[in-house]
Amino acid sequence: MSRKDNTRAVAIVGVGDTRFGKQEGTGISPLAVSAARDALVDAGLEAKALEAIYVGNFCGEVLTGDALLGSLIANRLGITGVPAIRMEGACASGGLSVQAAIQAVRYGMVDTAMAIGVEKMTSQTTGVTTQALASAGDQAREMSAGATFPSLFGMIARAHMARYGTTREQIAAVSVKNRKYGALNPRAHFQAEVELNQVIESRPIADPLRLLDCPPISDGAAAVIVTTLERALDLVSDRAVNVAGTGQASGPVALSDAKDITQLEAPRAAAQRAYADAGLSAGDMQVVEVHDCFSISEILAIEALGIVPEGEGGVATHSGFTAGQGGPLVNSSGGLLSKGHPIGATGTSQVVELVRHLRGEAQYQAFGASTVGLAYNMGGAGAVATVTILERN
Amino acid sequence: MSRKDNTRAVAIVGVGDTRFGKQEGTGISPLAVSAARDALVDAGLEAKALEAIYVGNFCGEVLTGDALLGSLIANRLGITGVPAIRMEGACASGGLSVQAAIQAVRYGMVDTAMAIGVEKMTSQTTGVTTQALASAGDQAREMSAGATFPSLFGMIARAHMARYGTTREQIAAVSVKNRKYGALNPRAHFQAEVELNQVIESRPIADPLRLLDCPPISDGAAAVIVTTLERALDLVSDRAVNVAGTGQASGPVALSDAKDITQLEAPRAAAQRAYADAGLSAGDMQVVEVHDCFSISEILAIEALGIVPEGEGGVATHSGFTAGQGGPLVNSSGGLLSKGHPIGATGTSQVVELVRHLRGEAQYQAFGASTVGLAYNMGGAGAVATVTILERN
């Protein structure tokens, strides 16, 4: 990969995570520290090597009573003095923190940085957690009128079906595929396959979406260490994974402000920027982790990323194209639907899974060797998006 | 100012804010947008000139039900597509957002960026707001045992008195000074002077701190636009204010982890880094906005910044040294104690006030012309600190 600007080449040298799911008897800090320590071991680094820490967390204030997680997690890792910042962009908080760490190294602010994504969601009642999730929407104009994320994505699904002829079976095929992959992932929240008719006949949530079209409420953490490519090669040799390019964009928080609810703008803009930054295109991607916050979201995602043309996400999924049959492998980790969706950890975890895949260390993602892939994380219903392209060294 | 590295020279070209205080009938977004639009007018820029937005907000999820404020405020300003990120470091959220905007321009990520700090604190009951404020402490180890920020700073005050012989009168002199200045500031929450004995005899909050040793609960917003020095001079000529240097550090969240509760580490480290970055020293500072979250905090602040030696903050305040009688002018805006403390807005507002002072536009800060000053913002009890040094062009 050649850089068009005079920034530095950056690589990922360490990744770590916890299992996603209900984690009894542990708090938000121990989860984050566990993932961070695993990443340090993976990189062969001491915590004191970290010059900046970026913590992706959505809603610690409400879910566990914790703000200031940058400093808190730095403290628990035994380091003080370094910049340690919590970044929030709802479900894209993890992606934002990974890109902040990448930019800090790329632009020469620091040589080594860590991104940590974490969320502890099961400490509160479902009512409190649901209310917290709604804070990622437009309170004044939509959520206060009773909208919820399942209902917003239910409308998106209905619109996609009406406009492109996408079928209920095609949407359910996303859940079937991701549950199949998640069943192989030892860190996934759900490790059981489901059949198409089970998805379609599961409990209604927000028509046409059913329970098995939705992700679980999970606890979890994930961490990524980035450094200069030069230092990365010294540290971990060919286990270093290059950052080929990044893209980030914001978009409407209110779904009613979207120009087209079936084709969200921010994810498309983020993808185009990342491809341009990397000098690569959608056709180059061999393995892809996308933000399937609902089954319909993965269909929107592969269209926004340019992996399939507009409106063809449903057909492509049902045909097996996104299961490596002609197309890239999409969400071979199990995705949010099966691996789980601890909000602030999700974007970081996507990068962790992608790194493992590119290194050939994700044996559960048993589909041969890939050399290039991307992770796409979204906040709200298209309110913020990050796309990070990685390449095996 | 000469840069030691090869980064770009950065200047502030626009500032804006709302009055601090109880703002009835308005939400968090309108407050932020009002400050942002004023900053755009001040800079002579359209919103579409902004290439990145950093929003400092502490606890929107709890206080107004709003997360994702980066995207939300960008939307309300009529721009989408740009990176728009909410950053949180408790009471230093505003300082973090200003420094993120500065770094983004300095290191060449973008040419023009805006930092917006905002908090809407009066929408909830005092109980909910107090609980939210406690989320900036160490929940697991201190706050769950009943600690509150007034009680933590009460302990700090008591320790400072015991160790250095600091008197109740000296501590109260901070409130007297800042209320005097705030009475002149048309945007301040409190605009009435107080006498020493009124402070000392006000309602006990956490011994020895009394009501008039504490800041009010305020709503408010502030915004700062940064760009390259070259572009700044084109835009606003000699109204551009140079960023001479920045420093940032994290420290213990739990007060019980501080090596010395009268001499917090992170503020000292942030100040040392900022002075080194600017090639300036404490003695060069003519006007200083510091984080007086309680009266005792200003005494700690001027010691941490090296404006007075350790232990002499009380004497210096009582003598008038920090009212420009021999020393720099400290908190001539009124500080948090008088101007108010809408958490996420505070650090941004400090920079706004400093810019106005250096430009000679803060007639209420009627103390002649200064050319160099700093803003020091702190989160928690020393958990995070930012120091930003500005110089008149």
Description:
2 copies of one chain form a homodimer. Chain A has 393 residues and is of the alpha/beta class. Chain A folds into 2 domains: 10-125 and 218-241, 3-Layer(aba) Sandwich (Peroxisomal Thiolase, Chain A, domain 1), CATH 3.40.47; 137-216 and 243-392, Thiolase/Chalcone synthase (Peroxisomal Thiolase, Chain A, domain 1, 3-Layer(aba) Sandwich), CATH 3.40.47. The first copy, chain A, contains 14 helices and 12 strands. The longest helix of chain A has 17 residues, at 343-359. At the A-B interface, helix 2, helix 3, strand 3, helix 4 and helix 5 of A face helix 2, helix 3, strand 3, helix 4 and helix 5 of B.
Tally of structural domains of chain A: 2
Task: State the major sheet of chain A.
Answer: 10 strands, mixed
Given this structure, which CATH class of the largest domain in chain A is correct? Answer: Alpha Beta
Strand arrangement within the widest β-sheet of chain A reads 3-2-4-7-1-8-12-11-9-10
- How would you describe the oligomerization state of the chains in this entry? homodimer
Structural class of chain A: alpha/beta
- Total DSSP E strands of chain A: 12
Could you say what the CATH topology of the largest domain in chain A is called?
A: Peroxisomal Thiolase, Chain A, domain 1
Strand fraction band of chain A?
Answer: 15-25%
The unreliable regions of chain A are none
